[in-house]
Design goal:
Keywords: Heme, Iron, Membrane, Metal-binding, Mitochondrion, Monooxygenase, Oxidoreductase, Steroidogenesis, Transit peptide, Transmembrane, Transmembrane helix. This protein is mainly alpha-helical and 381 residues long. It is built from 18 helices and 7 strands. Helix 4 (66-78) crosses helix 12, helix 12 (196-211) runs parallel beside helix 18 and helix 13 packs across helix 18 (332-350). The N and C termini lie far apart (46 Å). The model is unreliable at 1-11 and 359-381 (pLDDT under 50). The structure holds protoporphyrin IX containing FE.
Length: 381
Amino acid sequence: MLHTNIRKLSYSLTLFILYLWVYNSVRRFLPLLDDVAQDFCRSLRHRVETEGVGETGQRSMTLDPSPDLFRFALEGQSSCHVLYGERIGLFSSSPSEEAERFIWAVERMLATTPPLLYLPPRLLLALRAPLWTQHATAWDHIFSHGFCSVSRLQTVVGGASDGRFLGVLGQLMEAGQLSSELIKANITELMAGGVDTTAVPLQFALFEMARNPGVQERVRAQVLSSWQQASGSPQKALQGAPLLKGTIKETLRLYPVGITVQRYPVRDIVLQNYHVPAGTLVQVCLYPLGRSPEVFERPERFEPSRWSLDAASGGGFRSLAFGFGSRQCVGRRIAENEMQLLLMHVIFLLQNFIFNCGQCGPWRFFEIICEIYQQFLSENW
Ligand code: HEM
């Protein structure tokens, strides 16, 4: 089997400790993520009510959800809430200057990264190219935000936290398992690795639900029934709605965030009748894997329920969007839960909204037309 034969040579203890803590802290950070997801939906609802057109009770609005989804991802995990246990208020009506600067920095960093991948950094540096300067300035802000958050944590850890959840990083510091120096050394992966990775799949999930109304209905019916039985517990609500998890898996099957998962075998191996010498870079290409009819029946169909059947039959090692083994994605549990919670709350919203697909372009690939039916407005959010 691929996962038993292939191992990465190097191993980062810091990331492994983090993975275990994130895995074990799900129960504690779910309510934090739930708050942010509810704020996202409240702000969306407010926008439709105030900026939408049409008669009261049947307002409609066309919007690009991408900026708000980025804010959601930032607020939820990498910026603060799960990692540091604090909010920066990106959904408040008047975000602080610090919050605005931080979101600017992350957006600039993400926007300037792709062109820089193809241009020689030395040349850009020598030319003092604005692209380079903006990229470097953006990273300076991100680092300084991260360092300030870690310093704030240091003052609280060991002191009177009043039982407040200090975020995954605060807990690790409190338990003496991770020093602030190690956290600072890994801050870029933690803070920048969790923004577009979740915001973009969320857009694709909304896009697929928009153009598959039958799927949307089935997911909604399951979510509503699960929510009614969950007595307000987000964890129970998610557990009772496996189609939400299926929606995320299905989205990542069709639109994987990482293009490949890579390993260097530590000894010679034979894969699919090919001899692979030790030390060779082996890449599993997730996009063709997810769309192969040899691996998935009718791969072109967006069908979240295929993953329930998959779980029943043991899975067959087909979901590799987060990698696998000891080097799998550290933020997996945060990302999975965060995306499911957002979809769950948007689906409550969908009680009141009908999502239709607008024009599809290659980059700004969809617009969502929301028609609000206020007579169905529920008290849920
Ligand atoms: C949908 C969201 C995400 C996807 C699809 C994703 C995917 C991946 C993949 C494929 C890897 C490589 C795993 C391997 O080689 O086996 C990885 C590694 C990593 N991810 Fe994610 N990721 C996501 C979200 C996040 C978040 C939210 C964080 C941080 C909070 C994060 C932090 C990391 C880190 C630190 C690593 C390196 C792990 C190591 O080298 O041991 N990721 N991710």
